[in-house]
Amino acid sequence: MGAAIDTGGGDKKSVNVELNIVPYIDLMSCLTAFLLVVAVWVNLAQITIQPKGKNRNQPITDVIDPPPVISVLIQTDIIYVGVSRLAIDPVQIKKQPGGDYDWTTFENSLIALKKEEAFAERNDLEIAAESTALATVKYNDVIHAMDIAVKVGFHGVGLSEPTSLSWRPTL
């Protein structure tokens, strides 16, 4: 901030003040650039999922014939893909020797289920990750399974508790 200096004689001081607003303009331009970058990043990095499972506050309703549900259980060494209330054989996808799941088999099994009459018009699917005390399921594997499900056409992918899946493998 600068002030005008009175060069003339007299007892009165000048009241003219000139503000230097260049630093404020610099700050606002930096903040605007930061805002634009964050706004774009937030839209690109989001995952649109709906929580699935049972809610304790959910009202009790009488469902005569609940629809079949596709359940995916991801464990540390195997992925199970099963369907409740239909006579469809479950799919077991084991980890490959390289340490990664066979994602093409997973995608092909979801494509085959999407072609079934019960799931042709539906887009819901439930996924759960079950870890043990010695090993945990990687976050990237869960997200990759969700991405494949969305790619196949299941846009209502939901992450559930392993105990609340509609279908669970019997070991």
Topology:
Layout (H helix, E strand, L loop, with lengths): L1 E2 L13 E2 L3 H23 L25 E5 L3 E6 L7 E4 L8 H12 L9 E6 L9 H14 L3 E4 L12
Helix pairs in contact: 2-3
Please provide a written account of the structure:
The protein has 171 residues and is an alpha/beta fold. It folds into 2 domains: 2-44; 70-164, Nucleotidyltransferase, domain 5 (2-Layer Sandwich). The protein contains 3 helices and 7 strands. The chain has helices spanning 22-44, 103-114, 139-152; strands at 2-3, 17-18, 70-74, 78-83, 91-94, 124-129, 156-159. The strands form 2 sheets. It has a 5-stranded mixed β-sheet with strand order 5-4-3-6-7, with helices on one face. Strand 4 and strand 5 form a beta hairpin. The longest helix is centred in the first third of the chain and has 23 residues, at 22-44. The radius of gyration is 29 Å and the shape is elongated. 19% of the residues are buried.
